[in-house]
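Backbone description:
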Amino acid sequence: MPGLAARLPVLAVTSGEPAGVGPELCAHLAGRGWPVRTVVLGDIGLIRERAGGRVAVVPFEPARAAAPANTLEVLHVPLAVPARAGTLDAANAPYVLALLDRALAGCRSGEFAGMVTAPVHKGVINDAGVPFSGHTEYLAEHTGTPLVVMMLVGGGMRVALATTHLPLAAVPAAITRELLEATLRILHGDLVRHFGLTAPRILVAGLNPHAGEGGHMGREEIEVITPVLEKLRGEGMQLAGPLPADTLFVPHTLEQGDAVLAMYHDQGLPVLKHASFGGGVNVTLGLPIIRTSVDHGTALDLAGTGKADPGSLFAAVELAIAMSRGRA
């Protein structure tokens, strides 16, 4: 039908670190028959080079009725300096951040229904003199969001984290009643808003082995986690726990929940990544926009070889589309 594509939502996909696999992974988005317009943000010359002639790469034109078949639309953001596959250059750090800024501006204005991010290299951005700890923190700061929650989706699981990139020794002190309550409210709210769950069931892990074993292996479950769960259960939330992490991830227990809240990064993510690596999706909850991402890094050794697997990017796009419709 003429003009149909013009009415489709537009999903922004940032191409990430120009020396990494992001630009060539984005080329695989062409011709997939998505129910949205997927628009790649990046240097159009770079995207054409990394596409290797597999698809036509054309400038994004908002008024265009539809992109031709097997065509990739690119919203051009110019590189600061030429990029070489596999070779990092701190001079392009501002370019990487410009991709995020443009996608974020489009999401906030309503131009884009959401954003999907290809991987960036934190180290080279910091080498450029820009303090940067990751997409999640950057987007939180630039939207004025006081707390966001990282959740990975894959392998039939949704696993959110109470704490993320902290040394293990710092985790117990970081898990306060205030943090845990705020995290659970964000997780619950976005499961309702974006995942179509009217009464989400959340499985909450304990911090210590055997969930503290009645205080003999730690008192965080008694003094911090349980009081928060009891308070929120009183408001109607369906929360199970604190559960021993070593048995939480067995199929019988997982079947009783819609999402898991792990207390720290390596408590929950090794299980999920074992089940889904290469097809998992990182979701940032609590933002005023929809943002999903691949579950892998820049893979500099694969950049430019054409061997990088686009599976995680496809999954991130599919999840962003579903979240925008409120039924992920």
